[in-house]
Recover the amino acids of this structure.
């Protein structure tokens, strides 16, 4: 009797695979735009279903939900890879800029001491008023104004130094 139940489950699983796999793989293909990845996702969804076969009430729905989660994981992995590539290419471009002795404003601002850099970033890049910058940094407005002035003077001097070296 036990063997008959196992054979019945195996037959049901095989029938489900034949009926659902092509549609599931096609659906995944439209989402990931790659045949190999689509088949990997569809196969993984079935593998996860087999591991829970006796506990799943709606196998077809389980497969699609699992595949959707795997597609989402795939997209996240691709986005992480894209960010890493952008970061790498940006770093390479910055290194090339540094090598060519052509400082960017961003690099100059980053080179400011933290005491001057934070107010400069908040005021010039985040476009916050002096009052709000002061509140965020826990400083007096006069101190923030003085720090902004000092940052501008330091940037001006560094740009002047660069200009003098290249002329």
């Amino acid at each position: 009797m036990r063997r008959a139940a196992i054979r019945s489950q195996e037959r049901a699983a095989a029938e489900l695979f034949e009926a659902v796999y092509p549609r599931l793989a096609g659906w995944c293909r439209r989402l990931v735009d790659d045949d190999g990845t689509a088949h990997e996702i569809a196969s993984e969804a079935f593998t996860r279903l087999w591991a829970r076969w006796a506990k799943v009430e709606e196998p077809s729905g389980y497969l699609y939900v699992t595949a959707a989660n795997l597609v989402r994981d795939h997209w996240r992995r691709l986005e992480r890879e894209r960010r890493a590539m952008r970061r790498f290419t940006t770093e390479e471009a910055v290194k090339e800029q540094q090598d060519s002795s052509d400082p960017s404003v961003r690099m100059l601002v980053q080179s400011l001491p933290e005491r001057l850099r934070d107010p400069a970033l908040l005021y010039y890049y985040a476009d916050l008023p002096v009052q709000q910058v002061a509140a965020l940094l826990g400083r007096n407005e006069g101190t923030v104004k003085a720090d902004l002035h000092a940052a501008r003077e330091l940037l001006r001097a560094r740009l002047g130094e660069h200009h003098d070296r290249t002329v």
Remarks:
- The mean pLDDT is 84.
- The chain has seven helices and no strands.
- Residues 59-99 form the longest helix (41 residues).
